[in-house]
């Protein structure tokens, strides 16, 4: 049982971290215009200790967002442009032969860009499956294996990958099992009129707003640790399980799911939703998530973890439509 003193300390720690996180969100919003939901979902992903897949057409500031998050959160950030000729060693690193002054030879490991705290994998679907698998293994295990030796990645370690939904010729779509490694799929849309107007004025003058550091890696790790201790009510746990299990045609009470879903979200989806709801609660200054958090985060957590059948495509049914029906089972 938690003592009153430890509970008080936990609440004070949560309040302090919440102020920092709120300041970080405001700092990102000063540079990225009209993408409040994208900023929120990206921060939730990082607070939950996960990775995110950003999908949007060119020119929507996806690269700028990742760079800004790296600066604001104080993370060592690197960017890799994925191309068909990119090899796993270009990301992970490789061993090179060195000869000492006395003639003795030895191998030295040279780290690749994956050894960063925030890695942007730009247009990840343009690299070969072999290269994609190398990165996704590092994402899952937090380490890389080179010549039979393991090398731990920095902590924290996060990947924000991007995909362009246009120009799909010559690309290698991520397999469903690898998509499941991403905590969220964040769809980046166009900003509204007012936001785009502010962006035009702010980014075409002599002085453009630059992101300022607000947090550091230690504070992000502290927030991630705190999030895992936030209590979750039984109603929220039941809502998560109801939502996820209703998305599988084997256990769903919805005829639409049984007819249109080829395969639904697995247990990792429920785990992701649990962590994400806790992170959203802390981001909003609350010490426990609610069912509203589950409803708000269901689309980005589930949309890349479901596949529709041919009949769904023929009937014009989308994944977002199915998720909306799933939300109706708990809302």
UniProtKB/TrEMBL annotation:
Q: Which UniProt keywords apply?
A: ATP-binding, Nucleotide-binding
Give yes or no: UniProt keyword Aminoacyl-tRNA synthetase. Answer: no
- Residues in domain ChlI/MoxR AAA lid? 258-324
Q: Which residues cross the membrane?
A: none
Q: Where is the ATPase AAA-3 domain?
A: 51-184
Known SUPFAM superfamilies for this protein? P-loop containing nucleoside triphosphate hydrolases (SSF52540)
Coiled-coil region(s): none
Q: Which InterPro entries match?
A: ATPase_AAA-3, CbbQ/NirQ/NorQ/GpvN, ChlI/MoxR_AAA_lid, P-loop_NTPase
Please give the superkingdom of this protein's source.
Bacteria
- Pfam families membership: AAA_3 (PF07726), AAA_lid_2 (PF17863)
Among the GO molecular function terms of this UniProt record, one is: ATP hydrolysis activity
User: In which family does this protein belong, per the annotation?
Assistant: Belongs to the MoxR family.
This one is known as ATPase associated with various cellular activities
């Amino acid at each position: 049982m938690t003592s009153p003193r430890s509970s008080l300390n936990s609440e004070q720690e949560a309040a302090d971290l919440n102020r920092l996180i709120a300041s970080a969100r405001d700092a990102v919003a000063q540079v990225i215009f009209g993408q409040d939901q994208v900023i929120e979902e990206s921060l939730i992903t990082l607070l939950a200790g996960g990775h995110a897949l950003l999908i949007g057409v060119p020119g929507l500031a996806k690269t700028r967002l990742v760079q800004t998050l790296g600066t604001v959160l104080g993370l060592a950030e690197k960017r890799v442009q994925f191309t068909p000729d990119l090899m796993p060693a270009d990301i992970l690193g490789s061993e090179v032969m060195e000869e000492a002054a006395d003639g003795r030879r030895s191998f030295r490991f040279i780290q690749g860009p994956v050894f960063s705290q925030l890695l942007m994998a730009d247009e990840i679907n343009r690299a070969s499956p072999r290269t994609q698998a190398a990165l996704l293994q590092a994402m899952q295990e937090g380490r890389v294996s080179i010549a039979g030796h393991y090398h731990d990645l920095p902590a924290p370690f996060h990947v924000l990958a991007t995909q362009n939904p246009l120009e799909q010729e010559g690309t290698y779509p991520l397999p469903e099992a690898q998509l499941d490694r991403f905590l969220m799929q964040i769809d980046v849309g166009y900003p509204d009129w007012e936001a785009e107007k502010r962006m035009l004025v702010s980014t075409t003058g002599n002085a453009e707003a630059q992101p300022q550091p607000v947090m550091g890696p230690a504070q992000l790790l502290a927030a991630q640790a705190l999030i895992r201790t936030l209590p979750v009510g039984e109603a929220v746990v039941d809502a998560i399980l109801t939502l996820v299990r209703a998305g599988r045609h084997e256990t769903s009470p919805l005829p639409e799911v049984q007819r249109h879903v080829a395969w639904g979200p697995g247990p990792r989806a429920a785990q992701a939703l649990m962590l994400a709801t806790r992170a959203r609660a802390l981001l909003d200054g609350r010490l426990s998530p609610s069912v509203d958090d589950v409803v708000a985060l269901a689309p980005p957590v589930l949309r890349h973890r479901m596949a529709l059948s041919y009949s769904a495509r023929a009937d014009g049914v989308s994944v977002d439509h199915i998720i909306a029906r799933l939300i109706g089972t708990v809302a």
